[in-house]
Amino acid sequence: MHQDNGYLKLETLLEALAELKGQCTFQLIDELDADQLTVKQIEYLKLIDEFEATTISNLAEILDLKKPTVTETVHKLQNLDCVMKHQCSLDGRIYYITLTDKGEKLARLDQMSYRYLVEKIVQRLETNEIEILTSLLEKLMI
């Protein structure tokens, strides 16, 4: 029975930790004034971040979508100050899409929310408790 209580407590604590991470994500979204973005748009930002600078044609090919569909989403992302278009200096017909600072933060939302979570943990725990937690988590990764 003792083991069952420990299991349930661990499950509850892990759920609470996941909820705290979710709160960190929502806090970031709120700070970036990005609550109107869709999951699909965030996926576009992640792709653009992965390729650093890409074109609508490249995105359409990668996503297996038609150019007008991708163009529409890119325009929405421009209006939300998440991406910029830069004309190629060698071929004026080509425009590269890059992330703004806001777009970069949103593309890396998962990593940033983990950083926020770590900050919250560091604020709430003493140095020796952080060391213990780190040691315990390392055991789980082996």
From TrEMBL:
Signal peptide: none
Ranges for domain HTH marR-type: 7-142
Source organism, top-level taxon: Bacteria
Coiled coil: none
Pfam family name, one: MarR
Official protein name in the record: MarR family transcriptional regulator
